[in-house]
């Protein structure tokens, strides 16, 4: 079940970053290059919808993925600056916060038998 939550989070986080990129390109054309608003009209609503979906997804997966409130708040804050959901997703994967490795790594750091504590 956690794998499903992790997969949904990763897809939505990356989609949010991609939609941000599209909106930024649309804004570049609108405000700096041509004055053409088509990109903003297309990517504005797409990004808005995915932005909301990302926030809901973070709140939905925080329990199954065992995120603390600081991690949850960092995930939510990552939705504001451009592309930061992608960076947060990379960080969460590397630190085991997406696939559940964080609990296994904590347990593995402590020897479970007395033989592990004795010199050979």
Q: What is the radius of gyration? A: 19 Å
Q: Uncertain spans, ≥5 residues at pLDDT below 50?
A: 103-112
State the share of residues found in helices, binned by percent. over 70%
Q: What sequence of helices (H) and strands (E) makes up the elements?
A: HHHHH
**Head-to-tail CA distance between termini:** 41 Å
Summing up helix and strand content along with how strands pair, one would put the structural category as mainly alpha
Number of helices, counting only DSSP H or I runs of 4 residues or more = 5
Feature tags:
120 residues, mainly alpha, 70% helix
Summarize the structure.
The protein is mostly helical and 120 residues long.
Textual characterization of the structure:
The protein has 120 residues and is mainly alpha-helical. Helices cover 70% and strands 0% of the residues. It is built from 5 helices and no strands. It has helices at residues 2-33, 38-61, 69-77, 84-94, 101-108. Residues 103-112 have low confidence and may be disordered.
Question: What's the topology here?
Answer:
Elements (H helix, E strand, L loop, with lengths): L1 H32 L4 H24 L7 H9 L6 H11 L6 H8 L12
């Amino acid at each position: 079940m956690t794998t499903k939550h992790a997969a949904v989070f990763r897809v939505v986080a990356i989609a949010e970053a991609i939609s941000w990129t599209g909106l930024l390109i649309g804004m570049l054309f609108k405000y700096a290059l041509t004055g053409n608003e088509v990109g903003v009209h297309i990517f504005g609503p797409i990004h808005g919808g995915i932005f909301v979906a990302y926030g809901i997804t973070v709140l939905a997966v925080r329990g199954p993925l065992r995120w603390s409130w600081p991690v949850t708040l960092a995930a939510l804050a990552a939705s504001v600056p451009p592309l930061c959901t992608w960076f947060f997703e990379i960080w969460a994967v590397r630190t085991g916060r997406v696939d559940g490795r964080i609990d296994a790594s904590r347990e593995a750091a402590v020897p479970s038998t007395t033989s592990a504590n004795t010199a050979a």
